[in-house]
User: Which sequence fits this backbone?
């Protein structure tokens, strides 16, 4: 019953429906054809996850031209850094090293995006990204990369971590009295020695931690960690009866000498800090480091801050000796341990404030 | 020329078809369709966060103490400390805003008869009804504690218990 009245039949509707279903089915297959070309749109989450794992669970790596067992964060030339990784060691995921964190977020040492792209993001596609770290107790988060977009999909991962701080010691009147660190003779030059036994620190037991794989989180590593030695209450070691404070006197840190021993060899071998580290003495909590000798005048406090890498050339199975020589005028009793043993920088919490772990949260966004 | 033969006027039919197609197109484009294949991403993010938080709670803050906060919490049944520590860890972000993750935590141990038992350790004060899409994380903790149905010879002294946490987004 055909006519020209402009109506369509059920047959047409059925045919059109089958056509549309087929069309939709084919249309759904098309994106699969372009996966190879458009893969970056679907793997943002995977890249963010991978970046998070590298940062949180990997200690990083140096390039093939670096000799010795040196970590990436003390390399001066960024070409020697092969892969970023903030973990203290690969046995301690989620425990980040403060020195690595400081170096990673240092935008004068590395530039966004190229330095970060080939050392932590990887891949041929030029991903844009933001890596942020908020440390408990710090005012604002540290960040590298661009601002995360509001209206654009991005891959995201968040990791809870802890940051391992460095150790330090404050040699004050309690320690000086307990170990008998004052001389009983009146002399002009008083010598005070500190020993950092690398071999023991790197292989011995760490405090009460009995997990051999987890102890890297609490270990003091003289070759890579910052070491801080504060000497306070210097006045306490003087004989103030024989030399009352009203009498004029002067104290100078005349020199600091460094020695090391090697594995199986107890002889002392002198060494000098490299030029980059030669200013390490702070007088009376000052903010500027000076190179010894330093005049203390009548100040009571002295700090020595050995930045990460200061002792990197020393034998990790030996020991480091730091000899401080104080010059006094007039000659008198002072801080001196030549008659007893050197002060030991070790895992005893009485001697050294042990590395503490601070909470932090790391976020990676990739787009 | 309307009759009862189930016919449709051509122009109206095409117009209606186009409108339907347009509507479908706009709807599909304006929202991201959340398919079953995508759920593993948010599951993975939650799981990573939960195991990070639990593992960090089971880490001693320094070598002098030698004990983790989680060991102390399990030994003293301190639900309040677990709640505040766990929620702080999982909800913390690098920005100033906070996430909205809820949880229920259990401790599982072996009792005097050798059978496995669980007790509730803590929760986020939000009841767990079966509708949430929750993931499970767990960590072994070495504790020195005598559980209620333990004899002095069995599960007292230093032994391992399993802390399991179910967590979901509000």
Assistant:
């Amino acid at each position: 019953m055909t006519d020209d009245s402009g109506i369509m039949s059920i047959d047409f509707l059925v045919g059109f429906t089958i056509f549309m279903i087929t069309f939709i089915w084919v249309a759904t297959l098309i994106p699969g054809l372009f996966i190879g070309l458009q893969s970056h749109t679907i793997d943002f989450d995977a890249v963010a996850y991978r970046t998070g794992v590298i940062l949180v669970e990997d200690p990083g790596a140096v390039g093939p031209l670096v000799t010795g067992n040196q970590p990436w964060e003390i390399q001066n030339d960024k070409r020697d850094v092969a892969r970023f990784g903030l973990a203290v060691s690969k046995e301690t995921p989620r425990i980040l090293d403060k020195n690595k964190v400081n170096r990673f977020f240092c935008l004068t040492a590395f530039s966004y995006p190229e330095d970060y792209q080939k050392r932590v993001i990887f891949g041929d596609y030029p991903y844009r990204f933001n890596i942020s770290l908020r440390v408990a107790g710090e005012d604002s988060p540290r960040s590298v990369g661009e601002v995360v977009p509001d209206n654009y999909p991005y891959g995201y991962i968040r990791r809870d971590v802890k940051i391992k701080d460095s150790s330090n010691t404050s040699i004050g009147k309690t320690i000086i009295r307990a170990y008998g660190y004052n001389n009983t003779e009146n002399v002009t030059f008083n010598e005070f020695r500190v020993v950092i036994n690398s071999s023991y620190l790197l292989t011995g037991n760490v405090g009460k931690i009995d997990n051999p794989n987890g102890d890297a989180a609490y270990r003091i590593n003289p070759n890579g960690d910052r070491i801080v030695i504060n000497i306070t209450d210097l006045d306490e070691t003087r004989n103030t009866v024989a030399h009352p404070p009203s009498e004029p006197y002067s104290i100078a840190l005349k020199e600091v000498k460094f020695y090391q021993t090697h594995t199986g060899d107890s002889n002392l071998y002198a060494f000098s800090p490299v030029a980059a580290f030669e200013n390490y003495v702070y007088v009376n909590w000052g903010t500027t480091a000076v190179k010894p000798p330093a005049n203390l005048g009548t100040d009571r406090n002295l700090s020595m801050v050995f930045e990460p890498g200061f002792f990197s050339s020393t034998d990790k199975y030996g020991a480091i000796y730091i000899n401080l020589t104080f010059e006094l005028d007039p000659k008198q009793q002072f801080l001196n341990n030549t008659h007893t043993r050197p002060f030991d920088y070790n895992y005893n919490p009485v001697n050294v404030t042990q590395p503490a772990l601070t909470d932090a949260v790391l976020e990676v966004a990739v787009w | 020329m309307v009759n009862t033969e189930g016919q449709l006027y051509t122009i109206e039919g095409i117009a209606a078809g186009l409108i339907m197609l347009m509507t479908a197109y706009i709807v599909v484009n304006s929202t991201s369709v959340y398919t079953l294949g995508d759920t593993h991403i948010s599951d993975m993010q939650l799981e990573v966060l939960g195991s990070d938080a639990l593992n960090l709670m089971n880490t001693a803050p320094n070598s002098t103490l030698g004990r983790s906060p989680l060991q102390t919490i399990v030994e003293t049944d301190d639900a309040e400390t677990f709640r505040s520590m766990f929620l702080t860890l999982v909800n913390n972000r690098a920005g100033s805003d906070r996430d909205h993750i809820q949880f229920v935590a259990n401790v599982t141990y072996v009792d005097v008869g050798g059978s496995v038992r669980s007790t509730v350790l803590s929760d986020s004060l939000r009841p767990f009804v079966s509708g949430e899409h929750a993931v499970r994380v767990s960590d072994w903790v070495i504790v020195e504690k005598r559980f209620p149905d333990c004899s002095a010879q069995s599960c007292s002294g230093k032994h391992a218990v399993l802390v399991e946490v179910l967590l979901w987004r509000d």
Summary: The longest helix of chain A spans residues 10-33.
